[in-house]
Amino acid sequence: MIRRLLPLLLAFAANPAWAGIPAEQEDCLGCHSDPSQTFDLPSGEKLSLYVDQDAFAKSVHGEALRCTECHTDKTSDHATGELKFKTRRDVTRAYYEQCKGCHFANYTKTLDGVHYAVMAKGNDKAALCVDCHGAHDISRPGQPRTRISKMCSGCHAEEADVYAKSVHGRAAESSPDVPVCTDCHRAHDTTDPRDGQLAMRTPEICGRCHTDEKLMSKYGLSSKVVSTYLSDFHGMAATLQRKQKNAPDARLAAVCTDCHGVHDIQSSKDPSSTVMAANLQKTCAKCHQGASASFPKAWLSHYEPTPQKAPLVWGVQVFYKMLIPFMVGGLVLQIALHLWRVVVNR
Asked: In the 8-state DSSP scheme, what is residue 305?
């Protein structure tokens, strides 16, 4: 018995990847584990037919799917057939459709995304499932999270380079709390960044992290930045515009990204930050032409008025908080006394 098992044990030791692959895959990998396997396409491109056994065994599909569940057009004698594809991109597009068999919900989301819209217009470079997730080496999404931004950099290299130098990008390697591309742009139903409605939603997007008291206290940041924004003239104007059904395309007020930046956000203490005190005049002047050096002082930033910070504004707020109830209460009392007098004198 031991003699019979020994060859099998030696085979597994020599090919550890096979241990995690269903028996149905062995026939396929018998040929496709050869790195020299290629196919010449009509476009002149070479299509690699190689499948890395180790990578496939460790993938999320390695122990779950048979090859033919994705390669539905392949039969046992397909080695003698011909591929119907002209280019490598044709291959990618064809198998993009296979993903919806299991991942229909996410596939449906892609139909509302900017990548699908661009592809529908004839752009072959638009990202498809395998461009982001891979093919035979698919791992669980976001493991590690930094992999997401690196993956997006394949097409969006310039934005990724800017992000890597930002306060978020520099901290991404060491902190799981930092937003990566999909936290803001979403994954499958990615919004067109040129869409004005995306900009109008930035307070909501930024607020997912920046209103979390527990998370912000961890980094010594205020969790009231969104509430203070919404209570000032910028936030009120932006909120009113967003509620309008036929709102103008041009935005009426600044949102988070207009002041802080998009991919290039820096700490407010960083000399290169657009919201650092020394740079505020230039930032304000993007909308308020001719803004003087004292112009930014009219804005409370994201501070709430206190006796120490903006004491005059704080005093006015306190005064009105006392005056308004007093006036309303006095008016109600006057009406009540008048009615009582009318009843008594009848």
From this structure: P
